[in-house]
Write a structure and sequence with these properties.
Length: 117
């Protein structure tokens, strides 16, 4: 199995490519992340997430002012992150995970501390 293919056992609801797909719950998403970490001997860290991500049920936090979307893009010119499949949705949170083998996002802070000492 190549590192780019998705193992059959992962609970994707729908695949959008050979290594990307959709899930129904946060728990399913975290299961996929853990399985990928085991397969590739990597570790993902939470860079940022929205308030109460994965916390209390979303229905308890509805205010009546949420926007309903048909598709979602990062920027106006980007391809859609979520394509229009004729099902409206409300984004309820966002979590950004980065691989620990990736870019050092604390490099500037570390060099600043070394220069002070």
């Amino acid at each position: 199995m190549s590192s780019r293919s998705v193992p059959e056992s992962l609970p994707f609801t729908k695949l959008s490519s050979s290594h990307c797909g959709w899930v129904s719950t946060v728990e399913d998403a975290m299961k996929i992340v853990r399985e990928y970490e085991l397969l590739t001997t990597s570790k993902f860290i939470n860079v940022r997430s929205t308030k109460d991500f994965g916390g209390s049920p979303f229905i308890d936090r509805l205010t009546g002012r949420e926007r309903v979307y048909w598709s979602l893009r990062r920027h106006a010119k980007d391809t859609a992150i979520i394509e229009n499949d004729k099902v409206p949705f409300i984004p309820i949170g966002k979590m950004v995970l980065n691989c620990h083998h990736g870019k050092d996002r604390r490099k500037k802070n570390r060099t600043d501390r070394k220069s002070v000492v």
